[in-house]
Amino acid sequence: MGSPEEARVRLPQLRLDELLEELQARLDAARGTRDRVHSLLEAVLSVGRELDLEQALHSIVEAAASLVDAEYAALGVIGPDGRRLSAFHTVGVSDEQIARIGPYPEGHGILGELIRHPEPLRMAKISDHPASYGFPAHHPPMNTFLGVPIRVRDHVFGNLYLTEKRGGAQFDEEDVSVTLTLAVAAGVAIDNARLYEESRLRERWLRANAEITHSLMSGRDRAEVLALIAERAGEITGSALAAVALPMEDTGTLAVEIAVGLDAEAHRGLVLPMDSSLMGLAFSGASPVSSADVGHDDRISLEPPRFDGLGPAVAVPIGTGSAGPRGVVLLARKAGEPVFSVTETEPLKAFAGQAALAMELAERREAAEEVAVLKDRDRIARDLHDLAIQRLFATGMTLQSAGRFIEHEEAAERVARAVDDLDETIKIIRSTIFGLRTREGAGEAGLRARAVRVVGEAAPVLGFAPSVRMEGLLDTDVPKEIADHVVAVLSEALTNIARHAHADRADVLLATDGRQVRLSVTDNGGGIPAGGRRSGLRNMAERAEQLGGGLELGSPEGGGTTLTWRVPARKA
Q: With CB atoms 3.0 to 4.6 Å apart as the test, which of 224, 340, 345, 347 could cross-link to 220 if both were Cys?
């Protein structure tokens, strides 16, 4: 054993070693705290730099996992209902693992506990908590847990979930403090990213409105503008389908005129009821109507099938003024994508108002063009009446009076024929004047236009274009019910020529003197064979008899057939 003097020397040395070890421990702790504070500041700066919302959320999750040394981390975004998660961002789980686990959690169990009670939650073992009910198959094992809420302007945006602190350690109070600090910075970053996203969205809407306004000013028709509105609304909202429907007058239904995107053909041309379609409900209620899953919504008819692969949808009326909506815009996203939020619907309503303006401007422009055409037609008719007819009539009278002084028989006959030709020309011009002065009903063509259309449609079948001659006030003196019969008979007559006559020429005369309507169709074909089928002729005769008229068949000098159909201009 050493002497007492040696013992006194060793004792201070031991105390000095203890002091040095304690000092080193405190220096290490201070260095660790400094490093952690530095890491926290770096994380706050990193998160704050992100302006893209999705990227900002991912950066928050990565920063949280790094700060508390967690193996797994996630950020759950709380949905509009405030009860379940609408989005889930993870770190530490591979894409292959996610695919094997299945759908992301909706907010049950421990995750739901933090939604219901937005306060920091720390556990040594997840399974010990009463709200825990286990993990799905293929889910990695997790024991330690730390969860904190993320608030944006006093509203809980979502929650940070951290599990499995590395090295088998437990999450401590310092981890809670650091995570709460990060959550505050995350709330500011999320708010900034959302504001930036909203500003970019407003900019896109403004650009789209400017594009539509330019299209209107350049004179594009209504259908093109509506198609542009549907395309831009679909692009800006990330919709898989965009459609525009307009009301069908006096039917209580909507007709889908424009449809672009996923399975657009299934929607284009559909006639939709007001009470069992999303677009009908929006139109009748003059307010937006949304659906979380348009393919499984009890308010919407299942037939015809048209929403395969689609989920969230919203229908917004086009214009809601005193005259009511002019139509409806429908937007639908793919199944599984986010529902349409209020912040998305509001600018969409303004955009739909732009669509209403587009329709009104197009209608005004069409009306102005029609007025200009009618004025021009009036001018032409007036000039024809006041100038051409009077001169032709005077010329005919001159020739007729001069014919009495012509002794040469052949010359006299030629002058007489010229007078007859002038008289026929005057009749044609008068018929043209009547047509020019006719004001066709809004949205419905007159008898003249309908007859010309029938003849035009028959030309490809006939192989030639029939000549057409019209006399009298057909659009004024012939009521619609008589006009319908005339059009049907004309169509039947031209069809018979195409099928049976083997003709290369046909002449159509449609005339009225205010008392009677006469339709004459002449061809140079082989005539009506004896014993041939006459069902078409019988139908035309029955139509004439029902109206108090008759059908006559004849054969012109050069061969062929002349069909003459006469009925009173007014229904008996």
A: 224
What tokens appear for 133 in the block?
């009910």
How many whole angstroms separate alpha carbon 117 and alpha carbon 130?
A: 14
Instruction: Using alpha carbons, select from 106, 109, 111 the residue that is nearest to residue 133.
Output: 109
Residue type at position 58: H
Residue 114 identity (one-letter amino acid): L
Are 241 and 332 in contact by the 8 Å Cβ rule? The answer is yes
The per-residue pLDDT string of the chain (572 residues; one tens digit each, 9 = 90 and over) reads: 555 555 555 545 555 555 555 545 554 444 444 455 555 556 555 665 666 778 888 888 888 888 888 889 888 888 777 777 777 888 888 888 888 888 777 777 788 888 888 888 888 888 888 777 777 787 888 889 888 888 888 788 888 888 988 888 888 888 888 888 878 877 887 787 778 877 888 888 888 878 877 776 676 766 787 888 888 888 888 899 999 888 866 667 777 878 899 888 878 767 677 887 898 899 988 888 999 899 888 888 776 678 888 999 999 888 776 667 888 899 999 988 888 888 788 888 877 777 677 667 766 666 666 666 666 666 666 666 665 666 666 677 777 777 777 777 777 777 777 777 767 777 776 666 666 555 544 445 678 778 878 887 888 888 887 777 667 677 788 888 899 899 999 988 988 888 888 888 888 888 888 889 999 999 998 877 665 556 678 888 988 998 999 999 988 887 889 999 999 987 55
Asked if residues 342 and 262 have their Cβ atoms less than 8 Å apart, the reply is no
Confirm if 547 and 482 have CB atoms less than 8 A apart.
yes
The separation between CA 255 and the C-alpha centre of its own chain, rounded to angstroms, equals: 12
Residues 9 and 97: their CA atoms lie apart, in Å, by 64
Q: Measured between alpha carbons, how far is 283 from 206 in angstroms, rounded to an integer? A: 25
* Contact assessment for residue 319 and residue 325, using Cβ atoms and an 8 Å cutoff: yes
- DSSP 3-state assignment of 113? helix
Q: CA 301 to CA 303: how far, in whole Å?
A: 6
Please tell me the distance from the alpha carbon of residue 485 to that of residue 480, in angstroms, as a whole number.
Answer: 9
Strand order in the sheet with 241-248: 271-273, 253-261, 241-248, 327-334, 310-318, 289-291
Contacts 24+ apart (CB under 8 A), 193-201: 193/50, 193/51, 193/52, 193/53, 193/56, 194/53, 194/152, 196/51, 197/52, 197/53, 198/343, 201/236, 201/344, 201/347
Kindly write down the DSSP assignment for every residue of 226-260, as one continuous string.
Answer: HHHHHHHHHHHHT-SEEEEEEEETTTTEEEEEEEE
* Local structure of 169: helix, strand or coil: coil
pTM, 2 dp: 0.51
**What 8-state DSSP symbol labels residue 102?**
-
Q: What kind and span of H or E run contains 507?
A: strand 506-512
Whether 289 and 280 have beta carbons less than 8 Å apart is answered as no
Residues 76, 79, 81, 85, CA torsion sign: negative
Residues whose CB falls within 8 Å of the CB of residue 25, separated by 6 or more in sequence, listed in order: none
Task: Report d(CA 370, CA 375) in Å as an integer.
Answer: 8
Residue at token pair 């429907």: 245
